Amino acid sequence: MKLSEIVKALELTYATPEKIDPDVTDGYTSDLLSDVMGNAREGSILITIQAHKNSVAVASLSGITAILICNGREIPTDMLDAAISEGIGIVCTGDNQYVSSYKIHRVLAGS
Question: Which CATH number is 3-109's, of 3.40.50.970, 3.40.1500.10, 3.40.1390.20, 1.10.3720.10?
């Protein structure tokens, strides 16, 4: 499923330009970046509150195609710049990670 389809279905907000529209095939929720590196599947959307450029570096190394920043956290410019450079989509929500994970699962499962 394209990131833009998830954004539309869940009424998320793009932080990166909308032209960054990768395929998302799975989701992974964690704030511990070493956990993400060891366990997230390639093609996942990372659901986190970690709004800094290290999240983008981990996503790039792990084959994560998008990041969902929860709890309405501000996204710093250096994180956006890194994501654009790596072609990783960043989207935002005011929802917490529990609610966001549930919603992402439902939309990816088609229910």
Answer: 3.40.1390.20
Amino acid, res. 66? A
Between the two ends of the chain, the Cα-to-Cα distance in Å is: 13
**Cα separation values, 42 from 74, 76, 111, Å:** 26, 25, 22
Return per-residue pLDDT of the chain as tens, 111 residues. Answer: 999 999 999 999 999 988 899 999 999 999 999 999 999 999 999 999 999 999 999 999 999 999 999 999 999 999 999 999 999 999 999 999 999 999 999 999 996
pTM, two decimal places = 0.97
